[in-house]
Amino acid sequence: MKKFLINGGKPLTGTITVSGAKNSAVALIPAAILCDEPTTIYNVPNISDKNALIDILQTLNVEVKDTNCLKINAQKLKNRLINQELSTKLRASYYFMGALLGKKGEVKIAFPGGCNFGERKIDLHLKGFECLGAHVVLDNGIYHIKAKELKGANIYLDFASVGATINIMLAAVKAEGITKINNAAKEPEIVNVASFLNNMGAKISGAGTSTITIEGVKTLTQAIIEVIPDRIEAGTYLILGALIGKDLIIENIIEQHLTPLISKMQEIGINFERTEKGFKLTAKKNYKPINIKTLPYPGFPTDLAQPMTTLLTQCNGTSLIDETIYANRMGHIAALNQMNANIKIKGQTAIICGKTKLKPCNVKASDLRAGAALVLAALTAKGQSTIENIEYVLRGYSNIIEKLQNVGADIKIIETD
Ligand code: EPU
C-alpha cells in the first residue's frame, strides 16, 4: 500500500508551476479519436487518469505516442467493447460514449468510475444522445448506444452538466445538421474541448456560454491543442500559500478562471501579490471566517470546496460551505476532525469552527479533492502525518511530490504492507 508521509509545519518558499487541467485533458484525449487524421495534445498533466485513458485508446487500436506531448492517431481505430475494468478506472471514460458514437455511430461501454459523491447519474448524456437519434440499451452493466444516423437536434439540459455538455458536443460534431445545447455548462474545460474540435474543422460556436451551437461536418482533419492550466490545481496551491506560504509563487494561472476563489480568499484577508505569470502569497496569522456556496462555473467550484475547508479551519470564527453540486462530498470532514479541526455537517453544509491548531495524524483520503484537503492539512500541522489511499490524489495532481518538495515541503511516498 502506498501512503504519503508528511512532516508538516514548514513554511514553503519558491515557485510551483501549474500543469495542464485534468478535466480538460481527460476530455481532449477521447475527443482526439473523432479526428480522421493524427492529432497532438500539448501540456498534458502527468496523472494516472491519463494512463487509464491511454489503456482505453490502445484497446481501441488507436496509436498513442506519449512523450513531451501526446500524439494520437485513430486512423486504424477498431470499435471494441470498453469493459468494466477499463471504464471504472475513471469518470471520464464516459467521453468515449460521445466520441465513438460520433465517429462510428455505435459504442459498447460499461458504466464509468470516478470518485464516489453519492449517485452520479449520466441520464443527461443519454438523453442528449437519444435526441440526436441514438438508441440506448443497458444490458448487464454495458451500455449499447447505436444510431443509424445522427441528426442535429435542439437539446435542453435540466442541469448544466459538464460531462453531458462535452459528451453531446462530441456526438454532435459530425451529425447531419445543427445541434443546439441549451443550458450548457460554461466551464473553461468545455471551451478547450470545443477549440480542439474547431481546430480539426468542426463548427462549434458559443462554448463558454449557456447555448452551444454545433453545425455538423463530414470530416475532421489533423489538429493540435494545448491543455489549459488546471484551475483546481492552481487553487489548491493558492490555498496552500495562504496556509504556510512564505513568498510562495504559484504560476501558470489564468486569473479569470479563479475569480471566485481569489475573491473568497481576499474576503478572508489574504493578499495576492501579482507576479509575471501568477501570484505570490505569504500566510498570515489572523483570517476572517466566510461563507461559500458551490455552484457551476463561474460560481465557486465544488472541486475547491474540500481544499478550502482546510483553510477555513484556520479562520477565527465560524465559516460555512454549502455544497450544491453533489449529494455527498463531505468525505474529508471526518479525517480533518481527526486532525483537530472542529467541523460539523448539517445536511449539505459543512460548519467549520475555527481557529483550531491542526495536529498530525494518520488519515485516509476518501476521494481526490478530499485527499488534497488532507495533504494541505498535513503540511500545515507540525509533526508527522500519513495519508492512505493516495491513488486518488495521484489521479489528479501532476507531479505533486516533486512540486511540493521543490518549495521545501517534507513529503514522500512510502510503501507499506
Ligand atoms: N448529473 C446528473 N445527470 C447527468 C449528469 C450529471 O444528474 O447526466 C448531476 C451529477 O450527479 C452531479 C451534477 O449533475 O450531481 C454535476 O455533474 P457534472 O456532470 O457537471 O459533473 P461531471 O461531468 O460528472 C465534472 C468533473 C468533476 C467536477 C464536475 C463539476 C470531469 C471528469 N469531472 O464531473 O471533477 O466536480 O464536473 O464541475 O471533468 C474532480 O476533478 O475532482 C471532479 C470530481
Task: Provide a descriptive summary of the structure in words.
A hairpin with a 3-residue loop joins strand 15 and strand 16. The chain is built from 14 helices and 23 strands. Helix 1 packs parallel to helix 2 (48-59), helix 6 runs parallel beside helix 7 and helix 10 runs parallel beside helix 12 (368-380). The longest helix has 14 residues, at 231-244. It has 2 domains: 2-19 and 229-415, Alpha-beta prism (UDP-n-acetylglucosamine1-carboxyvinyl-transferase, Chain); 22-226, Enolpyruvate transferase domain (UDP-n-acetylglucosamine1-carboxyvinyl-transferase, Chain), CATH 3.65.10.10. The protein has a 4-stranded mixed sheet. Strands 2-14-16-15 form a 4-stranded mixed sheet. The chain has a 4-stranded mixed sheet with strand order 4-5-3-13. It has 417 residues and is of the alpha+beta class. The protein has helices spanning 22-31, 48-59, 84-87, 95-104, 123-131, 162-172, 188-200, 231-244, 259-268, 302-312, 331-338, 368-380, 391-394, 400-406; strands at residues 2-8, 12-17, 39-42, 63-66, 69-73, 106-110, 135-139, 142-146, 154-156, 178-182, 203-205, 211-215, 223-226, 245-251, 273-274, 278-281, 291-293, 317-322, 343-346, 349-354, 362-364, 383-388, 410-415. The structure holds uridine-diphosphate-2(N-acetylglucosaminyl) butyric acid. The site of uridine-diphosphate-2(N-acetylglucosaminyl) butyric acid (EPU) has 26 residues, from helix 1, helix 5, helix 6, helix 10 and helix 12. Residues 22-23, 26, 91-92, 115, 120-125, 159, 161-164, 185, 232, 302-303, 325-326, 368-369, 396 line the site of uridine-diphosphate-2(N-acetylglucosaminyl) butyric acid.
